[in-house]
Amino acid sequence: MKQIDVTDIGFDNLYFWQSFFRAEWQNAYHEQEDLSLPDIMDAYCPELDECLAWWHEFTQYDDYVMEQSDGYLDQPTTLEAALGDGQTLAIAFHPGDTVYFINGREIGCTGSHPIQRQPLPYESVKELLSHEYGEQLFFLLLPMAVMEKNEAKGAKIQIQSLLTKLFPKNICGDMAQCIVCALTKEERGRAKGLENNKKLLLFHMEEGKAALIKTVCDGLDIRVVKIYQPQYGEKIGALAGIPIYAMTNRPYTGDGFTREMMVICGLNGEELDAFLQAYRNAGIPPVWLKAMLTPHNMDWSAAQLYQALVSEHRQMTGQ
Questions:
Q1: 106 within 8 A of 119, measured Cβ to Cβ
Q2: What pTM did the predictor assign?
Q3: All residues at 6 or more sequence positions from 195 whose CB lies less than 8 Å from its CB, including other chains
Q4: Are 50 and 22 in contact (CB under 8 A)?
Q5: Each residue of 27-39: b (16+ CB within 10 Å) or e?
Q6: What is the mean pLDDT of each run of 10 residues along the chain (319 residues)?
């Protein structure tokens, strides 16, 4: 295991922080500007190739690991830091995911299947700013935070001010807005329709592989739905059967998909773990483009989500 601490990731380590924000805030979205946080960064932080190479080395990226274990290592690069009050933070940086622990207990992850098992109140994360290395700890734990709507305005001002220590000032307001939207309970509440709606949406999937996935899902009470090209223009929320969305039934006329895509809907943390373990045990080849249904991406069409995942995959792998 490669062990690091907060002294290794000062604000002068821009490769770490640019890579960290791209990886941990993939689903942070600014609705008014119709931009994700990585989109905003990519327009103003040109060191993408260098950051990608640095992040691959930092996370011990390897194509074999991505294929055989979905990007998880037995001994990932791990950061440990004291939080006070007898609490210790550990963050395991895998090639395909970042997993958070407090006192050895997993509280969440931020990869292709982001989960907050134990959300942290924003106020408690903000209190870290008074600690030694508090600004680094604040940003490290922020993806695990949740805030009330009435906290959002003040939080945006505070986050924006801190971001200026790392990024050009002209993008920090939009970046902060993306983060606040991602952490606000009202936004998270839009996912209520996911409850008891366990299903997988499969796109551009070969029939034999889809049948193997269905066999795994049948044993876990997960419905499998194959989506075909005429439906690629529909919103993901409609394809997933979220009650507030309706199908347009207008045939899609854009380009087809050239890669498989899987969207996972309505699984809680334990159910997702069980599915991924059963998938690996069945020896089914991985699906490179996959995402959890979230309050943000359910508004996107299938084609928009596909393009976002293709872009994200290229940023993470260079392929």
A1: no
A2: 0.73
A3: 266
A4: no
A5: bbbbeeeebbbbb
A6: 90 93 83 79 76 90 80 93 92 93 91 73 94 95 92 96 95 94 67 68 95 95 94 92 84 92 88 90 91 84 92 71
Distance of alpha carbon 42 from alpha carbon 102, whole angstroms: 32
Q: What is the DSSP string of 151-174?
A: GHHHHHHHHHHHHTTTS-HHHHHH
CB 298 within 8 A of CB 240: yes
Q: Which residues pair with 93 in a beta bridge?
A: 77, 98
Query: Within 13 Å of residue 46, how many CA atoms lie on the same side as its CB?
Result: 0
Measure the CA–CA gap between 109 and 106, rounded to whole angstroms.
8
- In 242-271, which positions are buried (b, 16+ CB within 10 angstroms) versus exposed (e)? beebeeeeeebeeeebeebbbbbbbbeeee
